[in-house]
Amino acid sequence: MNLEEIRQERQKWMTWKNILPLREALDALESVECACSFGDVVGIKSRTPIDETFASEIERVAKMMMPWRKGPFQIFNLFIDTEWQSFLKYNLLEPHFDLKGKRVADIGCNNGYYMFRMLAHEPSKIVGFDPSALYKCQFDFINHFIKSDIKFELLGVEHLPFYEEKFETVFCLGVLYHRPDPVGTLKALAKGMQKGGELFLDTFMIDGEEDICLTPETTYSKIPNIYFVPTIKALKNWCLRAGFSDIEVLAVTVTTEDEQRATPWIEGESLGSFLDQEDPTKTVEGYPAPKRVYIKAIRK
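Above: the chain sequence. Below: its structure as tokens.
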């Protein structure tokens, strides 16, 4: 299958019985002229007064699309208090990149929060990759008001080597540990980039000076699809093997409930339930509690 055939096949996801009502609700939303701001909260204000009926409809559609993971968003008077305070990650990375006039890809873009924030930097193009019908609906809901030129592809990192264009800057945030072949994933990222392009990546890590990694038996922090949690040295080795150089550690952070927590917009468990109640330095499985490393690397 070529990319266009894959796109056509995945467009059918929009007709799934759990997704179709979301698409119909989106199609029925009226269009309004908005003023947008791209600070910690991605904010949307109407340039003209909106009535209570329309405000209620916006809230109804937003709640249809739960759970909301990345954000937060403010749409008129509605505050979507997402599970993640995503501005903490974005603000950590922002001093290290220059996107003006560049082609940018966000791999695993979720609902597009980071991409909406990137608009303030005036890149020439932003493309998000995420094979999730729900996240595509959430993105389209937000973009219904913002009306940006961001392109959302229902594609994964494995499609990047065959994509129609190469990117000068690629973000891959919170994805690598979900992949059973981390080196293969990094190679796919490299193949989707221009030589000299910049990769910004964050992933779970464990402490240690050796080039080793944790391989959870079944789950890690109650998450089933976590395959490899490396030391920083092991992560650097993976990057070198994949075709990157000049690997720079930007930050190491411990995930806390200041960043990730349960809210009414997810209706489920979050970090507080994933850690050992007697010893929060460990997960419920007894592994080291989530810690992240942020790196910048150059495509050789």
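The chain has a mean pLDDT of 97.
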